[in-house]
Design goal:
The chain is an alpha/beta fold. It has a single domain, classed as Rossmann fold (3-Layer(aba) Sandwich), CATH 3.40.50.300. The chain has nine helices and eight strands. The structure holds 2'-deoxycytidine-5'-monophosphate.
Length: about 230
């Protein structure tokens, strides 16, 4: 049996900066399946809200609903596409991170994006990362991992990434932002960040990227699905 014949769905959840997307991308390439970055979808909505001046306040709810109705989000060749435009780099700013976290608590936004994510996962083998994949989007995924690391290590990784992209931001600011997002993401009423009962905990503090990739691939191989 291999991933071409049998559909496999791998769910990876965890807080910001745990390394989910780097790992998921590499595992997807190894298994030759699609990688779906659900955080990028919330970021795309957050980005469009900022562009159109829509806030998360109740008074803007009708404008938000209207905006969501005319929003198309797609993945193609490793790019995230919003209404036909590639927006990869534009969604990786601290401002968009904050708006993505804030708008992800709104029922209209979650409903739109989880419906789309469920449709994608129903159609093919995928590795999908986010906050509620194992608990909500793909409850019956063949593999579920909850990936985490200390807030300090996650802030260090994210800070390095932002500096490499030329952004001027301090480590202290990145750590504070991560702690705020952790709190927002795990305390919101709708599908908060939490480990699914049947997910395997993967604490990546002190682990190399290669070690984590090897671990996930070995779990898939062990099961005989690959
Ligand atoms: O993974 P990320 O940091 O790019 O995600 C951006 C925000 O989107 C994050 O703060 C929480 C939200 N999110 C979510 O609520 N549910 C998901 N499945 C993925 C992300």
């Amino acid at each position: 049996m291999n991933t071409k014949e049998k559909k496999i769905r791998i769910a990876i959840d965890g807080p910001s900066g745990a390394g989910k997307s780097t790992i998921a991308k590499a595992v997807a390439a190894k298994l030759d399946i699609d990688y779906i970055d659900t955080g990028a979808m919330y970021r795309a909505v957050g980005y469009k809200m900022i562009s159109e001046g829509i806030s998360v306040a109740d008074s803007d709810r009708e404008r938000l609903k209207n905006m969501l109705e005319r929003t198309e989000i797609d993945f193609c060749g490793g790019n995230i596409i919003l209404d036909g435009e590639i927006i990869n780099d534009r969604i990786r700013t601290p401002e968009v991170s904050k708006m993505a976290s804030d708008c992800s608590a709104l029922p209209e936004v979650r409903s739109k994006l989880t419906t789309l994510q469920k449709q994608i996962a129903a159609s093919k083998s995928v590795i999908m990362d986010g906050r509620d994949i194992g608990t909500n989007v793909i409850k019956d995924a063949e593999f579920k991992f909850f990936m985490t690391a200390s807030a300090e290590e996650r802030a260090g990784r994210r800070h390095k990434e932002l500096i490499e992209k030329g952004q001027d931001i301090s480590y202290a600011q990145v750590l504070a932002d991560i702690k705020t997002r952790d709190k927002n993401d795990s305390t919101r009423a709708l599908n908060p960040l939490r480990q699914a009962d049947d997910a395997e905990l993967l604490d990546t503090t002190g682990m190399s990227i290669e070690d984590v990739i090897r671990f996930i691939l070995s779990e898939v191989e062990k099961s005989g699905t690959n």
